[in-house]
Design goal:
Helix content is 32%, strand content 25%. By secondary structure, it is of the alpha+beta class. A hairpin with a 7-residue loop joins strand 1 and strand 2.
Length: 362
């Protein structure tokens, strides 16, 4: 890759769901798009590849015990946005996980494809093409220990994640923009009395769409604690009887415009984000009565009634936001010890007062 002539490298942009559909800098060489990111869902550096002629996206994820390739079948469309060439990437549901350097692999997300077909949110022809694309990729690169990873990306790839530098386009002195450690700065703002009203509006919409499927709809997170400074993000928890099948809650949320984040690695929840262009909103769908569902409710209620701990949490957040202003992953990880210490005290408080979650917020 280092030997790619500058005239063969082109500075472009890629917009996809992992970046909330915002365009981010990328490089195109031949039929390969690529960009570097220092923080993926699994807390490690990665280089993302898109093969235009194959219709797939490839990510080599560092898990710690074993590295795996995520091969997503995607639809890639090129558009000119304000004069810039932007490749818009849409997930087509049929995905492949390759263990290490192959050839062992397994198909995933076929249940999502089936759900999308049942809900008529993807037509039969599109679904069939996604499956054909996955089969072509498997036949070409994985059967009979074929050439994996694909030859066209090998010069750009390193199994230890110490990737060779991306090529610089002609006329570029500095090369592509540096990799993202986070998608936006960590910003803690004073408590805003409009946050509960915003939740109430969203909660009413969600209740109308989900009906009895949602056993609870609750405002959680820091914006749900009066007087507590926070990131201006509305966190919502939807409690359901079961996470699988997902169609009963996923389809109503999709119709409201919420974006399902299949990349979420927490298997005790299903994660959705706000409709494109709307204020940032996080929706966590969890099983009613589970530990993961009770945790944020207890944490919220405890902080609402313990001003000293709430103040300590605010001070910690302000300190960490200054330390990790452009590193959301490190910011979140650094809060974990405080969470567990507070939840220990909250559990003692719950045992003393007989705490139970109050009525659903919506």
């Amino acid at each position: 890759m280092n030997g790619v002539p500058a005239e063969q490298a082109e500075a472009v942009a890629v917009a996809w769901r992992m970046h909330d559909w915002q365009a981010h800098p990328a490089i195109r060489v031949g039929e390969v798009l690529m960009r570097d990111e220092l923080a993926g869902p699994h807390r490690g550096p990665r280089r993302v590849f898109w093969l235009l002629d194959e219709g797939v996206q490839l990510i080599y994820e560092p898990f710690g015990w074993i590295d795996e390739w995520y091969v997503d079948v995607v639809c890639i469309q090129a558009r000119r946005d304000d004069g810039q060439l932007v490749y818009h990437v849409t997930d087509e549901y049929a995905d492949i996980i390759v263990e290490g350097m192959g050839p062992a692999y397994r198909m995933i997300d076929l249940d999502q494809l089936a759900d999308a077909m049942s809900a008529a949110s993807i037509d039969t022809a599109r679904a069939a093409e996604a499956l054909r694309c996955a089969q072509r990729f498997v036949d070409r690169y994985l059967h009979r220990a074929g050439p994996f990873p694909p030859p066209q990306i090998r010069g750009f790839f390193a199994s230890d994640h110490r990737y060779p530098p991306l090529p610089r386009p002609a006329g570029s002195d500095d090369g592509p923009a540096p990799p993202d450690r986070a998608r936006s700065a960590v910003s803690i703002v004073p408590y805003d009395a409009r946050w509960p009203r915003r939740f109430a509006e969203l909660g009413d919409q969600l209740r109308g769409a989900l009906g009895d499927v949602a056993l609870r709809i609750d405002h959680i997170g820091s914006t749900a604690v009066p007087a507590l400074a926070a990131k201006p993000v509305i966190d919502i928890q939807i409690s359901v009887a079961a996470l699988d099948p997902a169609t009963p809650f996923r389809e109503p949320l999709r119709q409201l415009g919420y974006v399902y984040r299949a990349d979420n690695t927490e298997r005790t929840k299903r994660y959705f984000r706000e409709p494109p262009g709307e204020p940032r909103t996080h929706i966590d769908v969890r099983r009613a009565g589970s530990f993961s569902e009770q945790f944020p409710l207890l944490f919220r209620d405890y902080l609402r009634t313990h001003a000293d701990d709430a103040a300590a949490y605010e001070n910690l957040k302000r300190s960490l936001s200054a330390q990790f202003a452009h590193d959301r992953v490190a910011y979140t990880d650094a809060k974990a010890p405080f969470f567990w210490e507070v939840i220990r005290r909250a559990d003692q408080w719950a045992q003393q007062c007989g705490w139970e979650p109050g009525p659903s917020d919506a």
